[in-house]
Amino acid sequence: MTDFLNKFTKKQELRRLVVLLVIVLVLYEARSLMNTILLTFIFTYLIVHWVRLVQRWIPRVPVTLVVLLSYLLLILGLFYVVTDYVPMLVNQLVKMTNSLITFYQSADMHWLMKYLNRFVSSSTLATQARHGVTLAVTTLTNFGTLLVAVAMSVILSFFYTIELRQMNEFSKTFLSSQHLSWFFKDLDFFGKKFINTFGVVLEAQFFIALTNTALTMIALFFMKMPQIFALGLMVFIMSLVPVAGVIISLVPLSMVGYSVGGIRYIVYLIIVILVIHMIESYVLNPKFMSSRTELPIFYTFVVLLVSEHLFGVWGLIVGVPIFTFLLDIVGVKQIRVHKLPTTRDK
């Protein structure tokens, strides 16, 4: 058994393949916690890099102070989204629904409704109503689950970043394990690869999202839309989804636009989103994303479709980083490392 283990640990490619399969199996078994895992990773990654960036600008600032202020701003931002943006979107959805009901109950539509009643039975309507109630309950449940996952992720990432130096020192002790040092070294190898790959893609998509948000907010300002800042925040979050995010943001924007200017504003918003999508596809992606990952737009769309089918909504965000990570692992395309100064605890 010892000889077999020694031979196995000396075969680096086979060993790393087994470790990668173990990682995939563990993540699959922990799929019910995937929201918390991914959100914790994203929050931790962003805050750690933000702290290092601040230290590069202001070397003497204490790490603890930067972390505390960063999480205070993060919590205030999340509080604003939950208390201001979500009620606004729900209110606009209710207004839109009421407008549609009024439209269908008007005299002009009375003849059409009578004609449809001949083909649609009351049992069918009742079934559709039950499906609608079930969908509403499921949506509320998922939203509550997401809020819990966000809260847990913020807490976990806070404790990680507030003790960043201690966490790094303690994690390095696993590399000198007496029996499983090879396993933890391979785990460290894949972790560094994924963090670097995810960071490159996230950095590029972050600048793309900022540009998309600025252009959208300018258009919303000239259209005299309400709650421009809240809508801009929503566009920024959705623009973090490569390529498809700016199109997805059209749905809530259309709800608000319909309540303000009717069908005419929906047409305006479609034109605005199409123009911004063209700018993202033909200007921003080649400049920011392709310069780092060099993925063609066709591959990006295919990866998004497959990852959304496999991982749901999260696939739209992590699909491209995972695909780029796999390309790096198999040696198809290596991602250039972007090093920042190491964090110093003060």
Written overview of the protein:
With 346 residues, the chain is an all-alpha fold. It has a domain at 182-336. Helices cover 82% and strands 0% of the residues. The chain has 14 helices and no strands. Helix 2 (12-29) crosses helix 8 and helix 4 crosses helix 11. The longest helix has 42 residues, at 63-104. The two termini are 48 Å apart. Its main location: membrane. Pfam families: AI-2E_transport (PF01594). Keywords: Membrane, Transmembrane, Transmembrane helix.
Write the layout of secondary structure elements.
Blueprint: H1 2-10, H2 12-29, H3 34-57, H4 63-104, H5 107-117, H6 122-162, H7 164-172, H8 181-222, H9 228-239, H10 245-248, H11 250-261, H12 263-289, H13 297-311, H14 313-329
Helix pairs in contact: 2-8, 3-4, 3-6, 4-6, 4-11, 8-9, 8-12, 8-14, 11-12, 13-14
Q: Give the class from helix and strand content and strand pairing.
A: mainly alpha
Q: Specify the overall morphology.
A: globular
Order of helices and strands: HHHHHHHHHHHHHH
The chain-level mean pLDDT equals 76
GO cellular component, one term: membrane
Family: Belongs to the autoinducer-2 exporter (AI-2E) (TC 2.A.86) family.
Protein name: AI-2E family transporter
Membrane topology: Multi-pass membrane protein
Task: Describe, in short, the structure shown.
With 346 residues, the chain is mostly helical.
Tag the structure with descriptive keywords.
346 residues, mainly alpha, AI-2E-like, transmembrane helix, transmembrane, membrane, AI-2E family transporter
